[in-house]
Input
Amino acid sequence: MLTPLADLLATARVVALPLHTRFRGVDAREALLLEGPEGWAEFSPFAEYGDAEAATWLAAAIDFGWAAQPAPLRARIPVNATVPAVAAARVPGVLARFDGCRTAKVKVAEAGQRLEEDVARVRAVRAEMGPEGRIRVDANGGWNVDEAERALHALAEFDLEYAEQPCATVDELAELRHRVRYMGIPIAADESVRKASDPLAVARAGAADLLVVKAQPLGGVRRALSIVAEAGLPAVVSSALDTAIGLSQGAALAAALPSLEYDCGLGTASLFLEDVADARPHDGSIPAVRPVPDAAALDRLASADDRRDWWLSRLRRCHALLATAEQAG
Output
């Protein structure tokens, strides 16, 4: 049964977390937090997402706050550093905020930037991390196949662990994977899983070597686990620039995976100047625990009234969509 809207509204808190560096076009990350009988949960689809897509994120929040989660198989989750599309000179300062992380995910293919800037950024990361550090790049679907092949050829000297969503479509990923096989750079799918009507299409098409999965956009921990099991591919659990509360849901997913071969993208709390709880990595990992937000931080980071009203209206609309789907089912 769908949790009543009144129960969600009773504890809803809207916050805006300031970022060290502009990321995904924003200087602050907004999120709506809810407290259920199982603990705190997060509803934070990006502002540009429509209600149909955002409703899946709400289903994940309700599941995390109002239902017991799968049993954990590990107590701590190894995580990677995340390097935004900054100038190469800023890389050391970014990495310094990720205590003990030996893997870095580097954003590339940023709109308005050139490949030369991507190469310089990845080169700076390799210089900081040394030969034993692991580097993965994330293009968020920003290249076409020819651009991606050229870029990966230019970046191959830095011994990439994998390339995440280099192209936008499943067909493009499949073609690129065939083209770059000789380079030995695995292809990971993110948006082709979490934003797809059929998240298993990428696996059936042989378009990826591994999946990047996120608890919120996939509808919760159990659904994400089911997708990974059906796909039969290794999985990396990542965040959607979540607060400490959303990161704990990602940690619950990573803790429940039967196999965890890669460091997870759950260290993104280090991108924030402030958070509702401390979820920053220590010695390269985070604990698989549910934090309780600091009351003073909730007040200090509270969104302006107009943004709070915007999020509560969005919550009502998405809840109505879930209620309609439940009645139809």
Observations:
- The CA atoms of residues 247 and 288 lie 9 Å apart.
- The chain is about 40% helix and 20% strand.
